[in-house]
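=== RUN LOG ===
request id: a7f3
mode: sequence -> structure
chains: 1
length: 363
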Amino acid sequence: MTWLVIGGLVVVLLLAFFIGRRTGTRLALKRVRQYARNPESSDAEADHPGRYRAALIVNPTKADVRRLASTAEAICRFEGWSPPLVLETTLDDSGEGAAVRALDEGVDVVIAAGGDGTIRAVASALAGTSTPMGIVPLGTGNLLARNVDIVLDKTEWALRIALWGRNRYIDVGTAKLAEDGDSHVFTVMTGLGFDAAVMADTNSDLKSRVGWLAYVEAGSRKLAGRPSHVKVTYDNDYRISARVRSVLGGNCGKLQGGLQLLPQAVIDDGMLDVLIVSPKNIGQWVGVLASIVGRRATKGLHTDIRKCQKVVIESKDELDVQLDGDALGRSGYLEMEVMPSALTVRVPTVEQRRQIRAEAWPV
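=== RESULT ===
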């Protein structure tokens, strides 16, 4: 009898090893336990409350919801998860309300499928909770996805990373347009001045046709604007006064094409990197560009970066404000503060990175 028990354990471990090579050890052991309880059970009969479940929040302007939901359901079935809870964003709810509903349903991961605005809205609901966020990048910038190395243009791979990727705890920022105003969560960057004016003035039709080049077109029309006088206070302690074109705070700094706007920013260091841009004319903008391209913005021409946990910008003029690329209106006040390790994001494991590079994901 003892040898029979030992032999049975060996068989279980071998099954876990071979199935685990394809679907992951946790899932393999789960399937072995499932069939050990009832070896004749079907897939339908195995759909019990103990299985993992994801919520998929989709921006319908960025994807065919039915097709994406079908793909997600097929991948969940293959990976041993229950069918996903599929929710759509609306004009009245860009994703935060849907994420709150998903949390109420007790899902194991909330997957945001859309652009940076959708990602930010979902993150607003998940910040401060233990529920991880998966990302299916479908926007123009996809800035958070770029900064945490989520694969772009490969929906199936992004979905699998959301299910079985590694949990990474990242900082988020909060922004207020008044000292006693509402807090808005951001995951990448918030800015006041030139960068926000570019976001507000970008033609949406042009952006849908040419992508991020639409920002270049809008920016070219804003270069000749005049500087504004601001007071910037870091961590309630150090204050400077300057005439600037833009003040921007961020958790991370990678843009399209690998360009690093905040070259020393780290997404989980508990700090904000605050960039001040202060060119006075078109010629000095060339110096700004040279500083950023050369990753010398901390000591670059007409640029300056400081690290802090909180920053308050007070301007004599009402200036445009943007939050992760979304125009937020105009204000003469912007307060930003970091929330360390407030958001859990699913990122690729080492093995998943290898499979992505080799284009060898299991099918």
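=== NOTES ===
The CA atoms of residues 243 and 291 lie 19 Å apart.
The chain has a mean pLDDT of 82.
=== END ===
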